[in-house]
Amino acid sequence: MPHTKSHLDGLSIILLTVLCASWGLQQVAIKLSAADIAPIVQSSIRSGGATILIGLWVLLRRKPMFEKDGTLWWGIAAGLLFSFEFVLVYFGLEYTNASRAIIFLYMSPFVVALGSQFFIPTEKLTRLQYIGLTSSFIGILVAFGESFTFPSQDMLIGDFMLIVAAIAWGATTVVIKMGPLAKASSSKTLLYQLSVSALIMPIAAWISGETWADIHFTPVAVASVAYQTIWIATFTFIVWFWLIRIYPAPKLASFSFLTPFFGVLAGGLILDEPMTPALLIAMVMVGVGIYLVNRKHTPVVV
User: Fold this and answer.
1) Name one Pfam family in it (predicted).
2) All structural domains of the chain with their residue ranges
3) Contacts 24+ apart (CB under 8 A), 280-283
4) CA-to-CA distance for 137 and 176, rounded, in angstroms?
5) pLDDT value for 297
């Protein structure tokens, strides 16, 4: 079992900030290449390519991957949840708008916190830390809630898909942390998820009507897919699973609230998308929330 820590340190905070910035930029990369490669097809290529890269990495390091360590079914479960989340996000966006999707998807840290409360006793949050999570979530509402009007029937369908996607996202983290995957190497945990996703995403693309025949390998499309495959799915994901092994899952999950803001900033700088003053207020609320979740608490002796 790797040495675990009860609080985030400087290294983890730097890594989390880089991860959130990278994931935010990924949203722009997907938009930039959507006209040349459909989104679910992009995800299929990303998962398949990253599976090959991680597999080669494991072979080069000569690390055992097929020993009987009790991780098989847990890994398949995590892979199914991981794939299910992305499928629901892509399909949900067909019915609801992006702002509503962000609000519902970022309910995920609460799923991690509640799951930890029941299944990971050593990582329970205090009342103040739940207030911190709530502050961050309200920040998301302030930033992206301008389109949060009374929904149509189609929007309700999309909203429901995004809520279930948030549950799947949070559950993936809890499943990894509560079972034998917590003791497995980061590369093995990631390989489970990528390989299952590589099988499921092409099926999802076919169901959605996206075809591989419509791919156009323009320089922008190739750069976007390379970024998603090499940097996002291979490097950042393996760092994320390493962090999950070492640090408390709810505290890590609280940093995910930064991702949509990095996405908005990247969209403003690269795609000339609008950035409103409400974003500044929202980012302050998210920052306060992350601080409350991760501040050290001194126990009171009575």
Assistant:
1) EamA
2) 10-294
3) 281/139, 281/142, 282/139, 282/140, 282/142, 282/143, 283/139, 283/143
4) 24
5) 54
| CA distances from residue 24 to 87, 114, 146, 257, 260 in whole angstroms, order as listed | 19, 25, 20, 10, 6
Beta-carbon contacts of residue 191 (< 8 Å; ≥ 6 apart): 51, 54, 55, 58, 65
Do 37 and 212 touch, CB atoms closer than 8 A? no
Question: How many Å is the Cα radius of gyration of the chain?
Answer: 19
Whether the CB-CB separation of 174 and 119 falls below 8 Å is answered with yes
- The token pair that represents 181 in the structure block: 């995957």
Task: Give pLDDT < 50 ranges for the chain.
Answer: 1, 298-302
- Residue 114 has, within 13 A of its CA and on its CB side, a CA count of 9
Place of tokens 């991760």: 294
Quote the tokens at residue 253.
């999950």
